[in-house]
Design goal:
- The structure is a single chain.
- The chain has 14 helices and 9 strands.
- By secondary structure, it is α/β, with parallel strands linked by helices.
- β6 and β7 form a beta hairpin.
Length: 314
């Protein structure tokens, strides 16, 4: 029988909470988004950030890399960027009289794909294998990527000039999608008075590092999710697929992402079991970008809120 009281806090959890608190002091007024983004990273997932320029998308990506204890590799996506500019390519070495592979910026732990939807679909597709298999194939040879490997992508609203819609196969590889939005007035005043965020990010802490991230993921995987909650997730999937025009985007992967992120939320809230409320809280973030598609994440999140009301709790 499960213990209904929160489990005893451990050192890893305490460290995560401290880093989360410090991170929220850099991106002011966005505690919810920072927490959800951290849950995505602890789940081992990729994160899509959608909003107008200048609201802190890139700052959040840098914060997450710092929390994880890794440097961020930034790729500025433009309409003239080529797939080989990201993955790397074979260069002829006159000394060895042979071609040798020179890895591109995709070979990093935390890859910031800035303004991803400004690149052409051909270039966007260079991320597909990397996000799914954590490897890259160039000229018939496959190269493994770093572990952990996380893509933190930002995209501008599709109504802006010079954007290309992300294909559904690309969108589905992102575990979560977040909208930052403009800050509330009191927080925006503090932001105007705020110093250099780059220095503030350095003061967040040393970060977790690869080994601790692995240990945390193992703990998260052990969190209990009851049988009736699996059925609840299946009910949500069924309703969305049958009642949304974009319901086909709710793949089995979207269900698995909801399971692991719900467990991560329970872990960060110091519980060894998932509540139905955990699933409901995360649904807009895990499925919103999938359902929204080219209509945008906000539209998708609104649809998911309707879904929550329509499907009964177990």
């Amino acid at each position: 029988m499960l213990n209904d009281s929160p489990k005893t806090s451990n050192a890893l959890l305490d460290e995560c909470k401290t880093l989360l608190k410090n991170a929220s002091q850099v991106l002011l007024g966005k505690e919810t988004q920072v927490e959800k983004a951290m849950i995505c990273i602890l789940s081992g997932g990729h994160l899509l950030l959608e909003d107008v320029p200048g609201v802190g998308k890139t700052t959040l990506a840098k914060i997450l890399a710092r929390v994880a204890g890794h440097e961020v590799t930034r790729i500025q996506f433009t309409n003239d960027l080529l797939p080989s500019d990201i993955t790397g390519s074979a260069i002829f070495n006159s000394t060895s009289n042979d071609f040798e592979f020179r890895p591109g910026p995709l070979f990093g732990h935390f890859v910031l794909a800035d303004e991803l939807n400004r690149a052409t679909p051909k270039t966007q597709s260079a991320l597909l294998q990397a996000m799914e298999e954590k490897s890259v194939t160039v000229d018939g040879k496959t190269y493994d990527l770093a572990e952990p490997f996380v893509v933190l992508a930002t995209q501008n609203p599709f109504e802006q000039v010079g954007t290309f819609p992300l294909p559904e196969s690309q969108i589905d590889r992102f575990t979560m999608g977040l909208v930052l939005d403009f800050p509330q007035r009191e927080f925006e005043k503090l932001i105007l008075q705020q110093g250099d965020t780059s220095e503030m990010i350095k003061n967040i802490g040393e970060g977790l590092g690869s080994q601790k991230l692995k240990l945390i993921k193992k703990e998260i995987e052990q969190i209990h999710l009851a049988e009736n909650l699996y059925d609840y997730i299946l009910d949500l999937l069924s309703y969305g697929r049958n009642n949304f025009s974009t319901g086909h985007s709710l793949s089995p992967r979207s269900g698995k992402d909801l399971v692991i992120s719900s467990k991560a939320l329970a872990w960060i809230r110091e519980r060894d079991f998932v509540l139905p409320e955990d699933i409901q809280e995360l649904l807009p973030f895990v499925w919103g970008h999938r359902v929204g598609g080219t209509k945008g994440l906000k539209k998708g999140m609104n649809e998911i809120h309707r879904l929550i009301k329509e499907v009964s709790l177990p």
